[in-house]
Amino acid sequence: MPAFDYIVEHPKDKPITLISVACDTFDKWLEKQDKDTQNWIKSNDFKPVGGASIALPGKKGKIEQILVSISQDNMMWDFAALPAKLPKALYKIKGRHKADEANAAVLGWALGTYSFDWYKEATKEFASLVLPKTADKQTVQALAEGIELTRDLINLPAADMGPVELAQAAEDLADEHEAACELIIDDGLMDENLPAIYAVGKGAASDRRPRLIDLTWGSDKHPKITLVGKGVCFDTGGLDIKPAQFMKLMKKDMGGAAHVLGLAKAIMAAKLPVRLRVLIPAVENAVSDKAMRPLDVVDSRQGKTIEIGHTDAEGRVVLADALTLASEEKPDFIIDFATLTGAARVALGTELPALFSNNDDLANDLLMAGQSQGDNMWRLPLWKPYRKMIDGKTGDISNESAAPYGGAITAALFLEEFVLNSTPWAHLDVMGWNTSSKAGRPEGGEAMALRAAFAMIKKRL
């Protein structure tokens, strides 16, 4: 169901009251309650930990109030635990809360109702929340729907989410928000000087041919922002084929594309005053007689030749052309999202995206926004001494490092080569997947650093 279906703006029924108490002030709150309430809470051995709840007895045995304890530093996710845990009814948060607190509560609740059940007969049901008057409905709904889109696109099986379907998702999004969406398909990539994208995708079957998705929205009078997303809809590894245990989750290798479409949806739904462009090289890295081979040399839009040291390092190859195209029109900044390297996961784990940037102001703004939103990332260096590790022997640059170390850095250095005109650029190497379930974050596709990027863009306007 849509992310905001369990948020009610104008309730017809009387809601149950949610009494929200901060964990660190719980004891003081309890001291002010009547003896019956104190005895009830103590006799039920209630512990004030984030997301914990207890029904308080009301008249005639009905639930009239529910106490929930909320940790201030994890408010959004504590509220995300409630829709699935509470009885399926309508609830209203007691009192008037600051806008940022109300927004966190509503977004958490909305994300707590997410379930990818496209292929199941039975769907889950959740409790509903009355929209607090201090909440910014437009912004919170935009973010919830953008995150939902990101998760859905990643979760879809590769059989139903190839280059054609990814392009259709972009066209549907464009239609929804009166944006323009152009596609450059198959041999047209060569005609339009996008040879690196074509080289990776040419090995795919006839119904999964490569394409570049180019979505634009907004007025040229506004700041120009370009988002680039890696759209490898399934990654076998190519002729350097992956072993089964590493191929199983490769439907998520278009997670970068899912992120930029989700972020674009949030930006457009919130009507941020920007001129937005979204570029997605949509390909499948397939095994066939037309697939690129190890040590092939392919052209790029920028002019550098790319030596294919490893066919499973295809993401940076398709991004090369997209980043060059993005920077040609000199936007105010570029952000790319990509499920690019296992090395970033080794360095930072699965939950913390790696951030690289050629511009300190852009990087610092993203990091600060991440901290403010609880959507953190960690900056790694574009360490220039490692650049020699991707020198090509036959081509200008290799997509494989000469050493087995620093793989996230050498991948980012590769991408930097294709950003022209000193355009401020940030690269986010994300997992795009929850390896286990937490409140509001079920196992499966996940939007990482999306809320941070949205907050950064909004603050810059």
Description:
This protein has 2 domains: 7-135, Leucine Aminopeptidase, subunit E, domain 1 (3-Layer(aba) Sandwich), CATH 3.40.220.10; 140-460, 3-Layer(aba) Sandwich (Aminopeptidase). 34% of the residues lie in helices and 20% in strands. The chain has 16 helices and 20 strands. The model has no long low-confidence stretch (mean pLDDT 96).
The percentage of residues in β strands lies in: 15-25%
Structural class determined from secondary elements: alpha/beta
Kindly, what is the distance between the CA atoms of the first and last residues, rounded to a whole number of angstroms? 32 Å
Question: For the residues shown, what is the average pLDDT?
Answer: 96
Q: Share of helix among residues?
A: 25-40%
Low-confidence stretches: none
Query: How many whole angstroms does the radius of gyration measure?
Result: 24 Å
The CATH homologous superfamily of the largest domain is termed Zn peptidases
Tell the overall outline.
elongated
Count every beta strand, where a strand is a DSSP E run of 2 or more residues. Answer: 20
- Our count of helices gives 16
For the record, the CATH architecture of the largest domain stands as 3-Layer(aba) Sandwich
The tally of domains stands at 2
CATH classification class of the largest domain? Alpha Beta
Fold-level CATH name of the largest domain: Aminopeptidase
**Biggest pleated sheet:** 9 strands, mixed
